[in-house]
Amino acid sequence: MINNIWFVIKEKKAEFIRVLIWEMIHGVFVSAPLGIVMVIIWELFKEFPNYQVIWSVVAMMTVMLLVQFYFASKSMVKSNEFSFELSNWLRLKIGNHLQRMSMGYFKKRDPGDIASVVLQDVSNFENIFAHAIPNIASAIFGTFTLSIFLFWFDWRLAICLIVAIPLVYPLIWISNYLVNKFGQKHVKARNKTGSSFLEYVQGIRHLKAFGQTGARFKSLDQALLELKKQSIKVEAIPGPIVLTASVVFEIFFLLSIALGLYYFQGGSLDLQVWIAFLILGYALYQPLKVLTVEYVILRYMNVSLSRIRELLESPIQNDESKPLPTSFPIEFKNVHFGYDERSVLNDISFTASQNTMTALVGASGSGKTTICSLLARFWDVDKGQITIGGIDIRSISMDHFYQLFSEVFQDVYLFDDSIYNNVKVGKPNATDKEVEKVLNKAQCMEFISKLPEGWHTKVGESGSKLSGGQKQRISIARAMLKDAPIVLLDEATASLDPENEIYIQRAIQELIKTKTVVVIAHKLATIQEADQILALKEGKIAERGTHEELLNQRGYYAKLWNTQQNASGWKFNGQNEKSKV
Ligand SMILES: Nc1ncnc2c1ncn2[C@@H]1O[C@H](COP(=O)(O)OP(=O)(O)OP(=O)(O)O)[C@@H](O)[C@H]1O
User: Distance from the CA of 357 to the center of ligand 1, in angstroms?
Assistant: First the structure.
């Protein structure tokens, strides 16, 4: 557990130790007045009490109480500030780490689970530093201070009280085991509920359409029931442990009373010392009870710490800073790649010269998207190499790497913000003039002028207030503003009506001027002008050349072309029959 804490906060150790020192001092000042008050009892038991001494002790205690108040408020503020700052810092650290991980990680791990680490586990982590550790530090030092007084008064009775502490250890061991076991199950149930909710809410439109809301709700209901069951179990663990620990402490307190009586009757213990033990002995166990509860909580939080650590230890993509490319031809050299065990790309080699257009075509599943994903480093190649300007893309730092690309995908992602701000994502310091220019070039002004607030109109979540074609044009404007030397286009016009398609084709022509372009196109008619066309078949390049060259080969590409030409004659006339237009 300590290992996990140290690992997660390694850059913040010094601050943590400073906060801990405040807590320790606080713990000492909570217990010290109790020991000092015994001096009054001592004095009162004397035949001629010195009231001067008693007044001095009262004055001293007043000062100590003020100091205690000062340290209590200081340590509370400091530990809260530190924990909030720490959780904020940790979320950024995780975000930064996630950014540098390959897409493979996100495909394998449930996004709801990742969100749960960032939100729930980091909240638990915050509680460790805001409550658990401060309480534990203060309890340990409080107990330590009282123990010093007890040993000073009478070591025999002090040992009798202290001996209870190691006896509670087996309980701690059991709690470790139980909390680990049930804590993991609880976290699993919590994640499952989160994911089920997410899936339910995201898919509610489709569930309604297919009349499946009831069936899906059942699985959500089951997840909630499981969470309830695991929550009860995890909540129930501290109860018996804390209770048993309390019983052990009470027993040893009673034993110390009996032992004190025995020594008192035997004449080896003064009455005032015995009274001191009756008071301080009881007080000694109070912080220890707090300690037991907090320790069990801390063990549970350790499940969260392990999850945070596991995420932070997941490998990131190598991004050593080597020389940056100064020209932008792309080269695939004998690239092999598979998502899992199954090979998807086999020995892919091609060069896309600077400022030329390379089109990827082929049947569904032939590997077109995978080639673009490897080029954009969503994944890294298994074998072979991809270079830009002669430099292996794995050795370009991620920050620089993403500046090399503009991507226009079919699946456009827009932020729930204004059109203006969505476009400015491409270049945050762009002037209004630049934004206007790209919106014009991307054929957006025509529909923006009809919106109530022009380019300040909010687009809704994921651009829900705009049509597919409008969203795509905005994403093209964003890519234009970024003005990156390489453009990746993925089926940008696949599902558009003819009018939108014309607008988008115009916008794309503007975007790709003087760029190195790699385009995935299902509509072969749109890439007839490409400098080279790679026809992919089952993860291999079956043919390559210009449109004319490939048609003349009368091979795979020519077949695809002919099929599409024929398919363009499909007409829906009510009975799904084929007829030439
Ligand atoms: N994330 C993934 N995990 C596992 N397999 C995948 C993943 N993405 C794609 N595949 C598989 O890799 C193969 C190539 O897929 P890819 O998406 O590159 O094909 P594509 O030519 O772009 O297809 P489409 O034209 O339908 O988009 C397919 O068999 C697909 O099932």
Answer: 22
